[in-house]
């Protein structure tokens, strides 16, 4: 299933007789292109050995919370951040009870409390346990908390009784997990993404540019495509491969990026402006190559095109999402920029920190809209992009329904 390629999945295995089926699920997930890290409760290890999962997942199995060595490797916080999804299969009655009550007394339960990734559980238990009044309360509570409960199936059980409580078969779980990544939140929509830096000529050999690598924008184009959108990516000079299924237009200068955006903006539903467009450009680039004949050289710069501002002034503008690269007073500057440029959302990142933002593989952003905000904590740019695209989908639909009757959210 293509939807699972590259997805980072924590598979939690708990103490159920169905634990052996988790081995097959691990194999199927791996075969589908997912990266898997298995976490086992102590109960689970009474049924299957960690060695089995280590061999099938190709990664060490995580079993202990209060273990200095394990924490020094990939600790529980890092694991929780790493995950695109946490799948607990099989999920014992005991584990579901602990999850429903917010317990954090072993590695798996602590991970579930720490992660902001979706959690999916596949209950497996004797039918009496499944029907038990307290289990019913726990399951209802988990469902209401947004945790996806897969199954269980009904049928003959290991204990000989017949009824609901059998864990779904690994193939069924694989299909549900895969489909959970295909929330086509932007299906039928046209999304334009700008990415990377621009280059502004000083003369024919030299230019002014900035440190934007384009990674965030390319990750956003990928995430928007995965969410079902028709994506146009307008990219500055970056060395990144075009995401599958995305139309790419290469540009060099801010002016060219502006033209490329404005040429197609009328047909777009959403514009995500993640490119680092030059604010100032050489006022009159030298036609040839400037000779080194003087001790000082002054280059006059003038303000370049402000693409988001231009789009913000359009009568029938699309839903616009801007980026703010800030180093201080991040909240205030980002919100001010959003209002001045008539954007619908803005994602602010602190480019003053070395572990995120420009050139880094990770990012952390604060997203603002007219009456709300959400923090997306430090994670890979791919993960941040998927979270941001999901948020954009939600906000877009809300804005459109507020202006129902309009084709576009004319803000
Ligand atoms: C042979 C055997 C089979 C078990 N099968 C299940 C089961 O399928 N589902 C379940 O919820 N508990 C089952 N249990 C009970 C759990 O293993 C027990 O509640 C344990 O504390 C679960 O720990 P954990 O949730 O931390 O993994 C079984 C126990 C034994 C001895």
Walk me through what this model shows:
The strands form 5 sheets. The chain has an 8-stranded mixed β-sheet, with helices on both faces. A 5-stranded parallel β-sheet has the order 2-1-3-4-5, with helices on both faces. A two-stranded antiparallel sheet has the order 6-7. Helix 13 links the parallel strand 16 (319-326) and strand 17. The radius of gyration is 25 Å and the shape is elongated. It has helices at residues 19-31, 50-57, 68-72, 76-82, 93-100, 107-114, 127-131, 133-144, 170-180, 215-226, 254-264, 307-312, 330-340, 381-402, and strands spanning 8-13, 35-40, 85-91, 119-123, 148-149, 153-156, 162-166, 190-195, 200-201, 207-208, 230-235, 247-250, 270-273, 280-282, 301-303, 319-326, 345-350, 362-369, 372-380. The chain is built from 14 helices and 19 strands. It folds into 2 domains: 2-180, 3-Layer(aba) Sandwich (Rossmann fold); 190-402, Rossmann fold. The longest helix is centred in the last third of the chain and has 22 residues, at 381-402. The protein starts with 7 loop residues before the first strand and ends in a 9-residue tail after the last helix. It is an alpha/beta fold. Helix 4 crosses helix 6 (107-114), helix 5 (93-100) packs across helix 8 and helix 10 (215-226) packs across helix 14 (381-402). Mean pLDDT is 91; it is low at 405-411. The structure holds flavin mononucleotide. Flavin mononucleotide binds next to helix 5. The site of flavin mononucleotide has 15 residues, from helix 5.
């Amino acid at each position: 299933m293509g939807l699972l390629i590259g997805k980072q999945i924590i598979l939690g295995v708990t103490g159920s007789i169905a634990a052996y089926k988790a081995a097959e699920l691990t194999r199927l997930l791996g075969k589908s292109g997912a990266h898997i890290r298995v976490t086992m409760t102590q109960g689970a290890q009474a049924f299957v050995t960690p060695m089995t999962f280590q061999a099938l997942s190709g990664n060490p199995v995580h079993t202990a919370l209060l273990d200095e060595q394990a924490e020094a490797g990939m600790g529980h916080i890092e694991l929780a951040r790493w995950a695109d999804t946490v799948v607990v299969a099989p999920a014992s009655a005991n584990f579901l009870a602990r999850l429903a009550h917010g317990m954090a007394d072993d590695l798996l339960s602590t991970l579930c409390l720490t992660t902001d990734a979706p959690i999916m559980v596949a209950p497996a238990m004797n039918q009496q346990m499944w029907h038990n009044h307290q289990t019913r309360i726990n399951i209802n509570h988990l469902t209401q908390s947004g945790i996806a409960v897969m199954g269980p199936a009904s049928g003959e059980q290991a204990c000989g009784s017949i009824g609901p409580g059998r864990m779904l078969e690994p193939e069924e779980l694989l299909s549900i997990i895969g489909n959970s990544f295909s929330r086509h939140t932007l299906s039928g929509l046209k999304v334009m993404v700008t990415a990377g830096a621009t280059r502004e000529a000083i003369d024919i050999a030299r230019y002014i540019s900035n440190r934007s690598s384009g990674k965030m924008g390319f990750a956003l184009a990928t995430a928007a495509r995965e969410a079902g959108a028709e994506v146009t990516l307008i990219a500055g000079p970056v060395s990144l491969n075009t995401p599958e299924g995305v139309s790419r237009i290469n540009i060099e200068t801010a002016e060219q990026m502006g033209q490329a955006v404005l040429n197609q903006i009328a047909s777009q539903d959403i514009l995500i402006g993640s490119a680092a467009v030059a604010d100032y450009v050489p006022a009159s680039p030298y036609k040839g190559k400037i000779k080194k004949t003087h001790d000082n050289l002054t280059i006059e710069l003038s303000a370049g095109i402000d693409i988001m501002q231009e789009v913000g002034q359009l009568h029938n503008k699309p839903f616009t999402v801007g980026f703010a690269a800030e180093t201080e007073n991040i909240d205030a500057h980002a919100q001010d920029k959003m209002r001045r440029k008539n954007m619908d959302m803005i994602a602010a990142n602190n480019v003053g920190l070395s572990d995120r933002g420009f050139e880094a593989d990770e990012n952390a952003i604060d997203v603002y809209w007219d009456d709300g905000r959400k923090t997306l904590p430090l994670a890979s740019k791919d993960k941040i992009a998927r979270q941001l695209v999901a948020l954009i989908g939600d906000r877009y639909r809300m804005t459109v329904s507020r202006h129902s009757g309009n084709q576009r959210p004319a803000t």
